Automatic annotation (TrEMBL):
<feature type="domain" description="Radical SAM core">
    <location>
        <begin position="196"/>
        <end position="455"/>
    </location>
</feature>
<dbReference type="Pfam" id="PF04055">
    <property type="entry name" value="Radical_SAM"/>
</dbReference>
<dbReference type="InterPro" id="IPR058240">
    <property type="entry name" value="rSAM_sf"/>
</dbReference>
<dbReference type="InterPro" id="IPR023404">
    <property type="entry name" value="rSAM_horseshoe"/>
</dbReference>
<protein>
    <recommendedName>
        <fullName>Radical SAM core domain-containing protein</fullName>
    </recommendedName>
</protein>
<dbReference type="GO" id="GO:0051536">
    <property type="term" value="F:iron-sulfur cluster binding"/>
</dbReference>
<dbReference type="GO" id="GO:0003824">
    <property type="term" value="F:catalytic activity"/>
</dbReference>
<dbReference type="InterPro" id="IPR007197">
    <property type="entry name" value="rSAM"/>
</dbReference>
<dbReference type="InterPro" id="IPR006638">
    <property type="entry name" value="Elp3/MiaA/NifB-like_rSAM"/>
</dbReference>
Amino acid sequence: MIVAIIDGYTDEPAGLGVPPYMGIYPRYAYGAIKKARKDARIFYLTIDDLRATFEGERGVATRNKTPNFSKTREILEKASLIVYIGGLHTPGKYLSAVPSQVEEVARFLRPFRGIKVLGGPAFMGSAHAGGTRITSRELLLAQSVFDHVVYGDLEAFLFDYLRNPKDAGPMRFRDYSELRDYAIIGAEVVKQFPDFPDFVIAEIETQRGCPKAVGIGGCSFCTEPVRYRNVENRPIEDVVAEVEALYTLGVRHFRVGRQSCIFSYMARPNGRVPVPNPEALEKLFRGIRSVAPEIKTLHVDNANPAVIANYPEESVRIAKTLIKYGTPGNVVAFGLESADPKVAKLNNLNATAEETYEAVRILNEVGAKRGPNGMPWLLPGINIIFGLPGETKKSYQLTFQFLKKLLDDGLMVRRINIRQVVVFPGTPLWHMRNRVKTEKHGKLIQHYRYKIRHEIDLPMLKRVVPVGTVLREVRSEVFENGLTYGRQIGSYPLIVGIPKEVPLNRFYDVLIVDHGFRSITGIPIPIDINRESPKVLQYLPGIGKKTAVKILSKRPFKNKDEFFSVVGEDKREMLEGIIRL
């Protein structure tokens, strides 16, 4: 039996599966298929493989390995089962991968005869960046192309279907006891991931559902409580076992990101704000480190700032655990969404502006120290959503003022994510969709987005990574318009623009020399002063265009003393460690 798993990439409120992040769905699906049919030959393909094969392009040509597009058509022709995984609920900007839409993949797969299954969050539709609503058109299209649209857990459906198709129900959900085998068996599919082994970062699940939603309901726009009505915490030993399986295969980068709030793992329910469990988090991350001692990246994702603000003692212990066992550059994303209390109440948002401020302050106290990779150990991120019901002109002013206060008070936020609201079926917002303000407030949204990027992001970025900071192990990913773009591997890594072409898919230590609004300019070090281009030389601290020309006229230098006799001894301390001959 030949099975094709097509990864269209996923991005949802509690989980990321866009390269270099490998999401949970392909791994679980692979494990369920293997457990049900040991004789199955399973091929993992990406949407980029399909684009390359059927559109005559390589799609995204920045992967560590050449996509297997030469065999894609043959695999799909022979496959008796074709599983497509997709769903984009929190659209963002991606450096080297473009998630698929149902319309796109349906066009590719329609001619093939194998049984077609759609899984992951795609059954609710996929958001387009800047979009406001999901129409039923793409859902109807999915139903016309796919033989089965899975509304429950894809892995549960696949296991049942391969054992006895008559028993397979598209609405069935598995529990964590059933998942354990799927996750461990499915780990081996990571070997087919294009970024394996050096650049893949594996998304790890710890919890399903939203602890706050169980107490008082979820945020108006969020799909997580729609899909998972109850909160289920994954056993520590199961999480550790999956990490061990992936680590044994060669994975060295992990993001414990598949949960709505890492600070609420194993928490005690308590209405709006659950009581955190520091002992459980300590045991979890200590266990991960025990089976993955040479881990290179161990990061997390979401956190509810209300939990941190209301339980500071427990939360500080958890933050210290994340620093003790994790790696620097870690970011916890806070879902503020709006600083307007009226909007927060109407949309049942996670936290007030006051709680979010306190949570930012607490994490800065614990995690702002810079780690060996050049980044602070643990910082917050802020999520903002524009267009929510109840918004007025004052709402945007309040949110801007909140962010400005963080900046003025000397606090650090790793990134501010601004999205326009997307209305998904089944969410409370679906019933309030006539009150969504993205069209009415379009000019205001554009104005405040620009204002935040220029007046908040830029000075904040200069604070988080000042000129002269050295970021270690920046992976080069894309070359475009004379710049090579790269990132460290992590939860929310900064995009670094290198002002020259360098070989892709290699790690570089990069000296930060300038700042953009959401990205930075850096040059790989050490710099060969006898060979480097004048364009790069002028970025060196204290050099500039005139001195760069002077360096060119005096090259080659026999030693560093000759070099500093030209540029000035006063620059030796700044440049000694970043140049070579």
